[in-house]
Amino acid sequence: MRSARAIDGRRVLRFSCGLEIRVGNLAAAAALLTGAILLALVSLGSGITETGFREFLRFLAGEPASADQAYALWTVRLPRIVMGFMAGWAVALAGAMLQSITRNPLADPGLLGLSQGSMTTIMLLLVFVPAAPKVAVALAALAGGLAVALLLLWLVGGERASGLAILLMGIAVETVLSSVGSLLLLYTPPETSLALADWMAGSLFQANWNAIATFAPLFCASLLGLFLLGRATSAYDLGNEFAMALGEPVRRSRPLLLIFAVLLSASAVTAVGPLTFLGVLAPQLAGFLSPATGRARLFLAALTGGILVVAADTLARSVVRDLPLPIGLGLTLIGVPLFFFALRLQALRRLQLH
């Protein structure tokens, strides 16, 4: 490993295997990881029961704790922190991949209809089979997302289709599926409609260690996918024609990226419901913190997504303790002001450069 400067003058670390990492990206990743740990500590102390990190350390040391404190820490707060981070990671990573494929910063699983496909199949299953097991719900979400992905690939016509064509076709499919979801909410029994509406708002109320154990293999697989597919996203950022000119096997890599994004999105939808706007928000905030490409961009975006979901859940438990706040609303309250702030600073920087 040696230190050098890239073509744009930024300092990088170059390894003998050919891997190159920008020092600024490493610093941003370290800052985000530190922020995630500090946020988790704050989240441990947020809630009605008076307990937190100090009691957590005492519990690990074997000191006795009250039943309420043990329940709050191990049954409620820790599962919500872990599940929230993993779900946010998955959605943000899927959004960053889709933005590279389409070359559009607004692309995310929701806009392309992937999340809506998963939600529609889950809603249909819960309407007709209310007592469906969780395995069936997860399979239904994956089937709905994959069906939309395959439909998009068929409609746009193969590897030479532009990213804009995929985006526009995805918006059309998402609109149709949203209409189907609205019909289901309107014409199902009131108790079913209320349950579906609560789930569609997104929540971590059902987070538990069994769900985390189910989600953990996918989280580990996302790390492997990030490393293996990150280089392809760098080529797609240059455009479809440039990617093929650089030797990127578009016929194979584009469907693989799309299917992997579906898997991440469908799993997150099954676990916590839809996380609206996170797939757009997290990559943009990560890019503002430290401009990056390829694997570094995907990793920073995923980290940012996990942090945003945990922050939204912490806000919900600390500000409005007696009123359940959907995670989607918490994300809006935290993420949108940050998004406006980042865009404003970027605009001011451009004015200063000119």
Automatic annotation (TrEMBL):
Keywords assigned by UniProt, alphabetized: Cell membrane, Membrane, Transmembrane, Transmembrane helix, Transport
The keyword Cell cycle belongs to this UniProt entry's keyword annotation: no
Compartments, record wording: Cell membrane
Pfam families linked: FecCD
Keyword Cell membrane applies: yes
Positions of transmembrane segments: 21-44, 81-98, 110-129, 135-157, 164-187, 207-229, 256-278, 298-316, 323-343
Its membrane topology: Multi-pass membrane protein
Superkingdom, natural source: Bacteria
InterPro entries: ABC_BtuC-like (IPR037294), ABC_transptr_permease_BtuC (IPR000522)
Protein family: Belongs to the binding-protein-dependent transport system permease family. FecCD subfamily.
Protein name: Iron ABC transporter permease
